[in-house]
Design brief:
- The protein is of the alpha/beta class.
- It has eight helices and four strands; from the N terminus they run H-H-H-E-H-H-E-E-H-H-H-E.
- The chain has a four-stranded mixed sheet, with helices on both faces.
- A hairpin with a 4-residue loop joins strand 2 and strand 3.
């Protein structure tokens, strides 16, 4: 059990999310998702969570495990071409996880996602949350453009608005 991690989670609340992600930042993220999705047939969701609840924290739940839960809760897996991607930030840990549906994951694999996560986490350590998220969205979108080019009428299967958990 990591006492420092527990204390960090207990002291990180929704106010920390509001400080890092102002209304204008959330609007910019939504706009970026909408803009990049117009160029491919994939679906991108962004979710940020201040901290884990006490029970999963005491069970030592990782950000990756929580991201997989959120992927399911937000139904990112429920796209026609299995090309949904979740970018998840656990703010208390400054940990970014990208979970991709099986169609996308089979084409890219974990190393592509890890490189994007590392880039975003570096920006977050410097307090550049908006810049980090927008760069991550562009990077994910560029992969989706390559593997899922826009083909005909664009159906937006998932909301573009960031989710604050």
């Amino acid at each position: 059990m990591d006492i420092k991690r527990i204390m960090r989670h207990l002291s990180t609340g929704r106010a920390a999310v509001r400080r890092a992600f102002s209304q204008s930042t959330l609007d910019a993220i939504e706009h970026a998702i909408r803009e990049i999705e117009a160029q491919h047939s994939g679906q991108i969701r962004f979710a940020v969570e201040a901290a884990l609840d006490l029970s999963p924290l005491l069970a030592d739940q990782t950000a990756r495990e929580r991201a997989i839960e959120v992927f399911s809760l937000l139904r990112v897996w429920d796209t026609e071409h299995n090309n949904g991607v979740l970018i998840y930030l656990l703010l208390a840990d400054r940990d970014v996880e990208i979970v991709a549906d099986r169609g996308v994951h089979a084409r890219l694999g974990p190393s592509a996602w890890e490189a994007i996560c590392v880039e975003m986490e570096a920006a977050f350590r410097e307090g550049r949350f908006e810049e980090g998220v927008l760069a991550g969205i562009r990077s994910v979108g560029n992969h989706l453009i390559q593997h899922y080019p826009h083909a005909g009428e664009k159906l937006n299967e998932l909301p573009d608005r960031p989710v604050l958990l």
